[in-house]
Amino acid sequence: MHMVCMSNLVLHRFKIQKHIWELLFLMYIRILPEIKFKNLFLPLVFSIHNKILEKMKKIFLLSTAIALLITFDACQIADKKSSTTKDSVSGDTTMVNGNHVTGAESTESGLDEAGATFLRKAAVGGIMEVEAAKIAQKNAKSQEVKDFAAKMLEDHTKANVELKELAVKKKIITPDALPAEDQIHLDEMKKTTGLIFDKHYMGMMVADHEKTVALFKEGAQNRDTQLKTWATKTLAVIQQHDEMAKKIALTLK
């Protein structure tokens, strides 16, 4: 970047200097034939010409040096701005309610990007479990499904609070609402009741908990001690949910 800026400036200055020299040369050619005793004045003219060229060279070198210094500083500022923009873009890992959430906080807190991503994904999953459980308590037909939903609501509400506290401590911004597609899914579930709802909800719970178990196993391997401890503890609860969901799903077929 610096080299390109300086090369362009030098080339521009050289072109201007070249035009000046050509203009002076043309002036000498046109004026000299009109001067009487040109043999007498010719050496004097060339002497003046040479002195002018020397002065112009000095001015050119000085102005070029100053211009290069100014350009170098300007390029440095541009590079810093570009670097800042790239850093901000490269830190962007997810969207929260339509806004970019950067991962810069993970550097300040000591939590790596894998840990920050885990917290964000776990937050979305936790919100989904709570909201789906609320619908199930109203729309489910089977008491067993209703009881399962009550368990989901209790355990995941507690886990969500713990996750938020850990995220705040680690300076990680986590979602407070669901992505649009998940919210649409929940809105459609509200329109369903009875056995059809029970089958859909429990099938959803089996699929979701399998994914959540895998996610929390990754979190339990994180190098951060606090995150690792919380993920390991919560994983045991989620595995229990997974087993319960599979058993209930089988009874509904």
UniProtKB/TrEMBL annotation:
Domain DUF4142: 116-248
Transmembrane segments: none
Gene3D superfamilies in alphabetical order: 1.20.1260.10
A family per Pfam: DUF4142
Entry-linked InterPro entries: DUF4142, Ferritin-like
Protein name, as recorded: DUF4142 domain-containing protein
